[in-house]
Each structure stands twice: as structure tokens, then as C-alpha cells.
């Protein structure tokens, strides 16, 4: 693989991922609607383009890290987007947490143009992006996954092939369904405990080492106790992810009522102006 | 504290707890409606009584480990029960997962008779009972808790004082609310993943080390993948615990819809004849 890559989506996740690719020696071409957001990357040697076509012209692969499925649809299928611009034989790697159906469409429409698409959403958050310890859940063609391993290795600690196009997104959805249940249990438990007059620190000390132990409880329990709503992962992003999972589940004929409740409750918190808080702010749904 | 104790409730949890008290040197008096269930304890030196009154006559403290709040109510408030029989000045320690309101009533009615009641439900399950590694969540009078520490130490690894009567039960309810959310997330995630055609082993390898990691996922994930419904904790017992938590939450004016969904789904599984399976059988609710 040649060293020139295109990268689109320099947000809180994308920018440190792009930087890790540069640190690994790749020549980075970026497209940004707001160039000031890419300033430090440009200062470090990334080349800024004012069109997607310009950005991908010399690249052997394009990586995207966008907000929501609508953004992905725009960048891939919009006028002047990747389907119009990317060179045949190159890779398209969408790392956005997006819809499995859209990933399948990118794969099949890309294939008609000789493009090799992978859906490769991540877990590990902004911290994992900065530290290069993300995990990639990858769907697409196995041979393409193998050839892109060096890219994943530059940005993360782990990459697993989950099957045909869309399966990376399905695996991420499965992860977020787990997160939704555990997070809801944490917030309902603390709301209950507070109402019952329990000493939350003492309760946390007990439950966090027993059968109810979880990574999220360790991370969010102390924040809930101290009233710290600062984000590790934004409520609004969880809402986006759970919407995708819930829609896929419904389409598959599954009735996942805990997922649906978690989505409804996170939407309530968002509607009350708390979308930019951390996911532990879900507790405010129960305390109104 | 003198060495004679009464113990009522020699089930899957109670019997090994009673044995650990005997191993610690206490003289054990047991009351069992089905004496054959106590045979090995009697062979080991426990004294069998055919009435509660006889069982508690020489005891400085009575420990109960029963099935459900109705059983607790019968043993404490029924004719010839503990309120009629226990000697003033002695302890009553209910380790059943039961209702906080009933624990408060036992405390206040007991106090009128000079009895010192503690509610002390446990976490750690049958394994913790056998190995003496249970955690006790204790409500009542702080001085009584302190005086009973040696008993808890004989049966468990940890005992924490949670506040006035009922708070031990409230803390246990808070723990089970956590369990309900996490377990639901696990079962919904695996049901989704299976429907999406994902390799569950590969998915488990990824999610169990990330933000969705939990003790329950570690314990139940492999069982779900291999179709092993064998119990670590019975669905029917979780139903009982979640009923108590849901009722308390409703009485407190809280709307815990994930807890309510988990209870409803576990009841569905129980109604379909799976109450004696492990809690991972909740996945069958989603796969019908």
C-alpha cells in the first residue's frame, strides 16, 4: 500500500486518529468544511483540500469518521462525494458508528465502481482515539480487511473481522445495546438508592466488587455520586447509536424493550438540554 | 455473645451458612419442616427442633434465611413464630432478600418485645455461601450490627452497615436493579447479534474487554453462546428480588422502566416453565 491517505471527519475522534496515521508515516490529505479545525494537522504536514475530489485524488484509501448516518450518506453519495470521486481500486473505510444497511449499500455501490469498502466502527472513545488503543469492529471482504490491518494498527490496539459488509456496524450496535442496559441499571439503581436514603459511597464500595460489577459502574458511579456530569461519552452520541440499534432490531422483528426504554430515556434527557453531558446524566431522567 | 444460635431456613443458601457457623464453633439449633433436609447438619451436631419455640429457647440469636417475604412474615409473625417465641434481649437476623417495609416492621415490633432485629441480605450466591465469602448488607441499630460482626465473619468475607432498619434490604434491591439492567443488556445484545448473523464468540472476545465489560457478561456470556441454561442464580429468585425492588420503587414514586421491563421479561420466561433455569435463560424471552 502506498502512503497517501484521505481522511474526512476531523472531530473529537477523527482528529487524533488522523494524527496517529501521520505519526505512523502516512501522507495525509484532509477535507474539512471548517479549515480552522484542521489547522494543527496542517501545521504538522497534512494537506488541506477544499473538495472531496481533490482530497482523494492521490489517495490509495479514504477513511471517514463522521457524526451520523446522514453525514455518511452525504459524504459517500452526495454530489461530488466519494462514490463520484474515489479512484477505482482504492479503499473506503467508514469508521463512523452508522447503520448496517447503509454500510451494505456503500459496499455494493462501491463494488460497482471497483471500490473496496469496509465498515469499521470503533470502541474506546476519545481517550482510545488519542492513545491509539481503539478496537475496530470490521465488516466487508476478508481480503480487504487483511490489507488494511496496518491502518487499524496505526490507530488502535485491536481489529477484528466480523464478517460481510454491515457486520462491523452490527457488532457495534450489539456493544451499544450492552452499554444501554448496564448504564440504565446503574442510573436506576443510584436513583433508587438516593431515594431510599442510602449512603451512595458505601453502596458503591459494596456493589462494585460483586455480581453487579461493570466497567461502566467503575467509571460512572463515582461521577454520579459527586454530581459530575462531565462527558466521557456524550448522551447525544449514545442517542444516535441507540437509534441505529433500535431501528435495526425492529427491522429484524426483535422486541428489545430495555433498549427501547434506554433510548426513550436518553432522548428525554437530551430534550431537556443535557445532550452535551456525559452518559451518566441519564440519572437526571429518574430524578425529575 | 454466648455460643447457642437458632437457624431457620436450610435451603441452598442457608444450609452452607449454618455449617459455616458450626465450623466457627457455634452450637446450632435448627428448625426444619422437612427434617430430612437437615440430616447432614444434625449428623454434624446441630440440634433439631420441631417448633420455632423449641429452636430459639436457649439461643442468644436467631438467623433466618428464607424464600420470600411471605415466608419471612410467617416465621416472624405467624402463630408460634419468632415474635411469640424469641427471648427478650436476643438478636433476630433476617438474611432473606425481602421487603424493606417488612424489615422495618420486624425491627419495630421486635423492639417492643426487647428483640434486636437486623436485616442482613447477602450477595455472593450459593458459591459465596459455601465458601464463606458472602457480603452482608445490614440495616438496624449500629450497636447491634457491631455485636453481630463475629456471626457475619463466620459466614462471609464482608459486612457493611447501611443504616436504620430496612436499609440492608434497600441496598440489596439497589444491587438487584443493577443486575437487572446489565443482564437485560447482555440478553438483548446476544439476541440481536445472533439475529444479525454475528460470530458470538468473536463478539464476546471484543465486547467483554471494552466499555461494555461486566462481571455478569464474563459469567453468563459463554453460557449463552454454548446454550447452557444451568443456574448460578435461578430466574425465579431474580423475579422475587425484582418484584420487591419494583414495588419499593413504585411506592417511592420512581418510574424505573428498565427494571419493570426486566421483571416483566423474567416473568414471561418463568411463565414458560423456565424459572428453575439460570438467569441467562432471559435470552429465551427474546428468541421466541
TrEMBL record, chains A, B:
Similarity annotation: Belongs to the HIBADH-related family.
Domain of life the protein comes from: Bacteria
Pfam family, one: NAD_binding_11
Protein name: NAD(P)-dependent oxidoreductase
The species this protein was found in: Pyramidobacter porci
Claim: NAD is one of the keywords in the record: yes
Positions of the 6-phosphogluconate dehydrogenase NADP-binding domain: 5-162
Keyword field: NAD, Oxidoreductase
Domain 3-hydroxyisobutyrate dehydrogenase-like NAD-binding, residue spans: 166-285
Signal peptide: none
